[in-house]
């Protein structure tokens, strides 16, 4: 199924209803659909501030400065009870286990597991290292949570709370998991555009899409159904075959991608933050078709935060300031499917 050139934009009336319900401000752009929440402090936006459970139809927004998680029913845009976190901690990321229906948030020195239905804390797992947790990525099929610190990736068992192992490497900048092949992709602060690949057996291999001489990696995402990893580097996003390491296609984007998310059902790649600077008003996001290699959709507006795709609906949720500094939104976009 292919995406076409026009976006199916959710009506502005729904945006106004949603904003009235959750207290957000509608976007100043008429073609910006459905604000479903507000991130209050742009300094708290990160790579993993959004999570969605496609089966329970719940969108979760990590409000780091408020030490809370906002909950929105994606079917009705109605807000649910806010999940309060420890006010004495700093929180950096949020993921959903769609199999066990658990919410996982990471503080600096531990991760917390919260039951989505009861909203109760079920487990706390301390950081395996003394320098704390920077990033995390979940493989719900394997039951493993990968957390990064300054010089190691630790593998946590989300069922037992134990440590399954650790992999030394440089300071991680981005991390993505393929839930089919169970490979984990990590880019570090080392120059050259090299991506570390943690194999299911714990061994480490490397991807060098351009011989290791390209700019540093700006974003990572995987398409498990195609055994493919997307690597944002410089002015391009490379679609790389995980098994061979070959670049099957290179999308020219002009400027670095900030974040990416993939819908493995439609093979649509949502890439945000495509601007040469935060002050560049031409910043935009693009939807790339992983089958035809066409750019299916481009919309302007500064988008520099998280992006996540609800695979049950094809809707992407994106943090954006809508071109107005210090006014953060989470907005929903849907691209139509082909016949």
Written overview of the protein:
This protein is mostly beta strands. The chain has a single domain, classed as YVTN repeat-like/Quinoprotein amine dehydrogenase (Methylamine Dehydrogenase, Chain H), CATH 2.130.10.10. 3% of the residues lie in helices and 45% in strands. It has one helix and 28 strands. It has a four-stranded antiparallel β-sheet. Strands 2-3-4-5 form a four-stranded antiparallel β-sheet, with no helix packed on it. Strands 6-7-8-9 form a four-stranded antiparallel β-sheet, with no helix packed on it.
Spatial separation of the terminal alpha carbons = 7 Å
Average per-residue pLDDT, rounded, comes to: 79
Radius of gyration: 19 Å
User: Mind summarizing the main beta sheet?
Assistant: 4 strands, antiparallel
Count of discrete structural domains:
1
Shape: globular
Structural class: mainly beta
Order of helices and strands: HEEEEEEEEEEEEEEEEEEEEEEEEEEEE
Q: Going across the major beta sheet, what is the strand order?
A: 1-28-27-26
Strand content: 35-45%
Strand tally is: 28
CATH topology: Methylamine Dehydrogenase, Chain H
Q: So, the CATH homologous superfamily? A: YVTN repeat-like/Quinoprotein amine dehydrogenase
- Model regions low in confidence, pLDDT < 50 over at least 5 residues: 1-47, 323-327
Helix content: under 10%
CATH class reads Mainly Beta
Number of helices: 1
* CATH architecture descriptor: 7 Propeller
